[in-house]
Amino acid sequence: MKMLKLFAAVLALSMSGTMAAQAAPGYTTANVNHRTGPDTEFPSMGVIPESTPIEIRGCLRDESWCDVIAGGNRGWVFSEYLAYSYRGRYAPLPDVGLGVAGVPVVTFYAPTYWRRHYVGRPWYGERDRWVRHAPRPRPGWRPPPPGPRTPGWWRSGYQAPPGMPPPPGGWRRP
Q1: Any residues with CB less than 8 A from the CB of 127 and at least 6 apart, and which?
Q2: pTM
Q3: DSSP per position, 41-76
Q4: In total, how many domains does the chain have?
């Protein structure tokens, strides 16, 4: 029995280290809502200001929404408002792609996510309303194209900001 508990503890520690290694640093490119789920119907915890350093924990397979940590809060942001350091410049995450940025693909299941991250929060009492809500496909979003990506493939008429600067305060990719 003790060996089983020891094995479980070692496995849990090794998995937590693996998960931490899969997170990617980035920052926000606009003032953006930080939501409790990957859909505009989920409540916003507030706005993450433009140029805020964030930790990207993962994105949905279609790369539309990403699970991020900002200021100690964990939640969901539209991927087009996230940037990543790429080849000495900063680029919107959808232009770079998850594989290049080292961002894992994740899934979302509201009951588990809310239990892990929002117990004790003021809105947790309303969880039954949200845990039944299944995220819908993001309006106007399409999955990323295969092969090389052109800037703004994800939005018709999109113009990438010229020379997107890093956030203030000397943020650097570790």
Answers
A1: 111, 114, 118
A2: 0.77
A3: TSPEEEEEPTT-EEEEEEE-TTSSEEEEEETTEEEE
A4: 1
Task: Kindly report the number of other CB atoms within 10 A of residue 39's CB atom.
Answer: 19
Kindly report, residue by residue over 118-155, the tens digit of the pLDDT. 999 988 888 888 777 777 777 878 888 787 777 777 77
- Rounded CA separation 9/11 (Å): 5
User: What CATH number should be reported for the domain holding residue 168?
Assistant: 2.30.30.40
Hey, is 149 helix, strand or coil?
coil
pLDDT digits 0-9 by tens, 67-106: 999 999 999 999 989 998 777 777 888 888 888 888 999 9
Which structural domain range is residue 72 located in?
23-174
Residue 2 domain-assigned (yes or no): no
Residue 7 lies in a domain: no
